[in-house]
């Protein structure tokens, strides 16, 4: 992952996905459970990006929040699979660590965005 990130969250997630896809492609060359994990990661990461893109054309604030919530859920799932890959040593630490770091940052950014969209009761 590059040290310079785009300021637009959608573009940053797009770049994340474009790193995850070849990572998963390489990981899926191994058969069995490793291939399944690679596919799960690819599904979650690409879905996070796709739902964030869909949010841009939401027809209401509620629809916008729902698409963002799905994106956050999918990013959390991608983060989970990356943690499994790291802990089980399914990929070289030098290849998984930067992706894991970016997934953590993106999850935090999406979480902060959701808090702004749906503040807890009593906030104003």
Describe the fold and architecture.
This protein has 4 helices and no strands. It is mostly helical. The chain has one domain: de novo design (two linked rop proteins), CATH 1.20.1440.60. The chain starts with 8 loop residues before the first helix and ends in a 7-residue tail after the last helix.
List the helices and strands and how they pair.
Blueprint: H1 9-27, H2 33-56, H3 61-87, H4 93-117
Helix pairs in contact: 1-2, 1-4, 2-3, 3-4
- Could you name the CATH topology? de novo design (two linked rop proteins)
How many angstroms does the end-to-end distance come to?
38 Å
- Percentage beta strand: under 5%
Overall pLDDT metric? 89
Q: What's the structural domain tally?
A: 1
SS-derived structural category = mainly alpha
What kind of sheet is the major sheet?
A: none
CATH architecture identity: Up-down Bundle
CATH class: Mainly Alpha
H/I helix tally: 4
Unreliable spans: none
Coarse shape:
elongated
Helix content: over 70%
In total, the number of strands is: 0
Summarize this structure briefly.
The protein is an all-alpha fold and 124 residues long. It has four helices and no strands.
Features:
124 residues; single chain; de novo design (two linked rop proteins); mainly alpha
């Amino acid at each position: 992952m590059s040290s310079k990130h785009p300021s637009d969250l959608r573009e940053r997630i797009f770049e994340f996905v474009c790193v995850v896809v070849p990572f998963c492609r390489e990981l899926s060359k191994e058969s069995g459970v490793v291939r399944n994990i690679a596919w799960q990661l690819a599904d979650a990461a690409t879905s996070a990006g796709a739902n964030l893109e869909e949010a841009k054309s939401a027809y209401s604030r509620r629809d916008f929040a729902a698409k963002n919530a799905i994106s956050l859920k999918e990013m959390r799932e991608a983060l989970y699979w990356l943690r499994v890959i790291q802990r089980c040593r399914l990929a070289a630490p030098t290849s998984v660590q930067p992706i894991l770091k970016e997934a953590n940052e993106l999850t935090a950014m999406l979480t902060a965005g959701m808090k702004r969209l749906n503040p807890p009761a009593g906030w104003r």
